[in-house]
Amino acid sequence: MPDQFFLSVVMPVWNEATGIESTLEALAPLRRAGHEIIVVDAGSDDGTAALALPLCDRVVDAEKGRAAQMNAGATVARGNLLLFLHADTRLPSDVLPRLQAFMATRRGWGRFDVRLSAQRPLFRVIAWFMNTRSWLTGICTGDQAMFVRRDVFEALGGFQPLPLMEDVEFSRRLRLASRPFCVRSPVITDSRRWEKLGPWRTIFLMWRLRWRYWRGESPESLAQAYRSDVRNA
């Protein structure tokens, strides 16, 4: 497989005006290296799209929902390597050589280790468990900046239109192509969700939802349970 690549970073957003400029400015080195950044907006009403436009290569409109947004971005992307990045997650400084190493392998996809932005030791422990779980299971979550070769993405039909667990579901299908290529340089994801709900409550919520998913409960009912828990935080 060729080791040269053209990277398309696809970022689904909704009402991210407070942080979108700093997020995209952090990706400027990728654009200067000749790669592209695609922002997929789901009808934000806070000016997110207008703020993003000067700092990315393209802003795409899509229906709300990360699966639909990421598929929409992949459809217009020009790269042979797709990387799906949350708006509150920062890539490591050595992202390009890490992806170059991936492209020199026969793996079809991969993900990064993750680190939470909060400095409390507990959050380091949480990140360790998240990364270890991913190493053992081959399952990736959206916070880990999944990347996939375009031909593999298209062969598998992209993300399923699920309101929750679209990343887990896609990981399960991607494992049919290969085990993930795991990058140890971590992405840094904002810990605000963990801090808002409380770390132990968030851990319990995520594991409960994942357990219910593995038992066959519909993503629609899980999304409703997730929204209810977050509203009551």
TrEMBL record:
Keywords: Cell membrane, Glycosyltransferase, Membrane, Transferase
Origin organism lineage: Bacteria, Pseudomonadati, Pseudomonadota, Gammaproteobacteria, Pseudomonadales
Location in or out of the cell: Cell membrane
Highest taxon, organism lineage: Bacteria
All residue ranges annotated as the Glycosyltransferase 2-like domain in the record: 8-152
Main location: membrane
Protein name: Glycosyl transferase
GO cellular component: plasma membrane
Entry coiled-coil feature ranges: none
Pfam (any one): Glycos_transf_2
Protein's UniProt keywords contain RNA-binding: no
Record-linked InterPro entries: Glyco_trans_2-like, Nucleotide-diphossugar_trans, Trfase_2_rSAM/seldom_assoc
Origin species: Marinobacter similis
GO MF: glycosyltransferase activity
